[in-house]
Write a structure and sequence with these properties.
- The protein has 449 residues and is α+β, with helices and mostly antiparallel strands.
- It has four domains: 110 residues, no CATH class; 89 residues, 2-Layer Sandwich (Beta-Lactamase), CATH 3.30.450; 83 residues; 144 residues, Histidine kinase-like ATPase, C-terminal domain (Heat Shock Protein 90).
- The chain has ten helices and 14 strands.
- A five-stranded antiparallel beta sheet has the order 2-1-5-4-3. A five-stranded mixed beta sheet has the order 9-11-12-14-13, with helices on one face. It has a two-stranded antiparallel ribbon with strand order 6-7.
- Strand 11 and strand 12 form a beta hairpin.
- Helix 8 packs across helix 9.
- The mean pLDDT is 81.
Length: 449
C-alpha cells in the first residue's frame, strides 16, 4: 500500500511538472512573459518539492537500513504524518523493524544457548580460518591443549612443536592422533576435522577428544580377557599332566615308602608308559599353544604390491575348493568396481580370506543351500573393501565382543587365534576387520583398506 501511494504521488508530481514546463514554453512563445514567469516559478517550486520529497523518503529508508546494519532497533518513524503515503511508509518501516528485531533477539538467544552447550561439552571444539586465526575455542579444548586463551595456532608451538605442526598441516576430513605430556599428566588426543562455511568464509572445524581413559579401559579389558583365555587353556593342559603324574607316583609308593624293585610288575610298567604318553601329548599341546602365541606376536611387516581383486579371490576359491568336502555350498564372487586393485601383501591377505572362508564353511556345515559370497569394491567414503558373507547360523550377540580375542574359540578344534591374527594383519595394512552377524540369517566379515 505504501509503495503504491508513493508511486501515485510521484507520478502526479511529474505530471504537474510536465504541464508547468509546457505552459512555460507556450506562453514564452506567445510573449506572455508575466504568465510565463508564473509558470516558471511554479515549475521551480514543483521540481524543488519533488526533490525534497524523494530525498526525504530515500534518507528515511537509508537511515533505516543503516540502523539495521548497526543492530540499532530503537529507531521509530512517526505514524502521524499528514501525507498518507509517508504515514503508510513509516508504519511499514516500523513493522519491518520490529520483525527484524524479533528475529535478531531469537538468534541471539539460540547463539547463547549453543555457546553454553559448547562450553560445557566434554569434547574440545575450535574453528580456524585460512590464516590460522582461532575464531572460537571452548574451555574444554583450552584445557586439553593446556593453553588459554587460544587466538592463533602459533600459540600451540609453546605447548608442543609437534602439536603446532599437526594443526598447521591439518586438512579437512582428516583424523589424527597425538600424545601430549605436561606437568599434570600424559594424555592421548584424537583430532577430527571438517569444513564449515560462515559469512562466505571457509573455516576448519576441529574436534579434540581425550581418549586416554577409553584406551586405558580398553587395555585393561583386553588384558583381562586375554588372561582369562590363557589361564583357561593352560589349566586345561596342565591339569591332566598333574593328575597323571600323581597317579604314576602312586604306582611306586606304599605306606612305608617306595615299592621294592622286585615287586614291580608288567602292569606298573604299562600304566607308567600310558601315563607318560599322555603327559607327552599334553606337553606337545602346550608347546603348540605357546608357538601359536609366538606366531601371533611376530607377524612380519607386509610386503605390499598391487594385486588385482579378481586374481586374489580366484586364488582363495581354488585353495578353499581343494579342502572343502561340502558339495552343498555355493561360492559366489561379486566385483562392484571394475579393474579393482589392492596394495597389499598378497600372502597375508590370502591367509586372512582363506581363514574367513574356512570358518564360513565350518559354520554352514551340512546345512542345505549354503552360500558363501565374497564381494570386493569401493565404499562411498572411497575405502576399498572385501566382504565374506555366509548364510550359516551366525554368531550369538553375547560372543561378538569375544570373537577377536586371541585363543578364544567356540570350536572343538583349532587354537583360536585365526580371527585375532587376521585382525592384526589388517591393522598392519592400515585397515580394519569388522564383523556383523544376524543369527540364522547372515554373517558378514568386512576387510577395509
Amino acid at each position: 500500500m505504501a509503495s503504491k501511494s508513493f508511486y501515485f504521488q510521484l507520478v502526479l508530481r511529474v505530471i504537474f511538472i510536465t504541464l508547468s514546463a509546457i505552459g512555460l514554453a507556450y506562453f514564452g512563445v506567445q510573449k506572455e512573459y508575466i504568465i510565463a514567469a508564473v509558470f516558471l516559478i511554479v515549475l521551480v517550486l514543483l521540481t524543488a518539492y519533488l526533490i525534497k520529497y524523494v530525498n526525504h523518503t530515500n534518507r528515511k529508508i537509508a537511515y533505516f537500513f543503516e540502523s539495521i546494519k548497526n543492530e540499532d532497533f530503537t529507531l521509530r518513524f512517526p505514524e502521524y504524518e499528514n501525507v498518507k503515503s509517508l504515514k503508510e511508509l513509516n508504519r511499514s518501516l516500523n513493522m519491518l523493524n520490529a520483525m527484524i528485531h524479533k528475529v535478531h533477539v531469537k538468534n541471539q538467544v539460540q547463539e547463547k544457548y549453543y555457546q553454553e552447550i559448547l562450553k560445557h561439552a566434554d569434547i574440545g571444539i575450535l574453528t580456524i580460518n585460512s590464516k590460522g586465526h582461532i575464531l572460537f575455542a571452548n574451555p574444554r579444548v583450552e584445557h586439553l591443549l593446556n593453553y588459554k586463551p587460544l587466538n592463533h595456532i602459533k600459540q600451540l608451538e609453546q605447548v608442543d612443536k609437534k602439536l603446532y605442526d599437526l594443526f598447521a598441516k591439518l586438512e579437512p576430513f582428516q583424523r589424527k592422533l597425538i600424545e601430549l605430556t605436561n606437568e599434570r599428566e600424559k594424555i592421548q588426543l584424537t583430532l577430527k576435522s571438517t569444513t564449515v562455511t560462515l559469512d562466505n568464509q571457509n573455516l576448519l572445524l576441529v574436534v579434540v577428544q581425550d581418549i586416554q581413559r577409553e584406551l586405558e579401559e580398553k587395555e585393561a579389558d583386553s588384558w583381562e580377557k586375554l588372561i582369562r583365555v590363557l589361564t583357561h587353556e593352560i589349566m586345561n593342559t596342565i591339569a591332566p599332566i598333574t593328575s597323571i603324574s600323581e597317579s604314576i607316583l602312586n604306582y611306586y609308593k606304599k605306606e612305608d615308602g617306595l615299592i621294592p624293585l622286585e615287586e614291580l610288575t608288567e602292569k606298573h610298567i604299562q600304566n607308567t608308559s600310558k601315563g607318560l604318553a599322555v603327559v607327552k601329548e599334553q606337553g606337545n599341546n602346550l608347546m603348540d599353544f605357546v608357538q601359536s602365541y609366538r606366531s601371533f606376536l611376530s607377524i612380519p611387516t607386509p610386503d605390499k604390491s598391487l594385486v588385482k581383486a579378481e586374481q586374489l579371490i580366484h586364488k582363495v576359491f581354488v585353495l578353499i575348493d581343494q579342502e572343502n568336502q561340502n558339495t552343498n555350498i555355493n561360492f559366489v564372487f561379486n566385483l562392484t568396481t571394475e579393474n579393482l586393485e589392492f596394495f597389499i601383501d598378497e600372502k597375508q591377505i590370502t591367509q586372512v580370506l582363506l581363514n574367513l572362508c574356512k570358518n564360513a564353511v565350518q559354520s554352514i556345515g551340512e546345512q542345505e543351500n549354503g552360500n558363501i559370497t565374497v564381494t570386493a569394491g569401493i565404499t562411498d567414503e572411497k575405502e576399498k573393501f572385501i566382504t565374506v558373507t555366509d548364510n550359516g547360523p551366525g554368531i550369538p550377540p553375547e560372543l561378538i565382543d569375544e570373537i577377536f580375542i586371541p585363543f578364544f574359540t567356540t570350536k572343538n578344534t583349532g587354537t583360536g587365534i585365526g580371527l585375532s591374527l587376521s585382525k592384526q594383519i589388517l591393522r598392519l595394512h592400515g585397515g580394519s576387520l569388522k564383523l556383523r552377524s544376524t543369527p540364522n540369517q547372515e554373517t558378514v566379515f568386512t576387510l577395509l583398506f
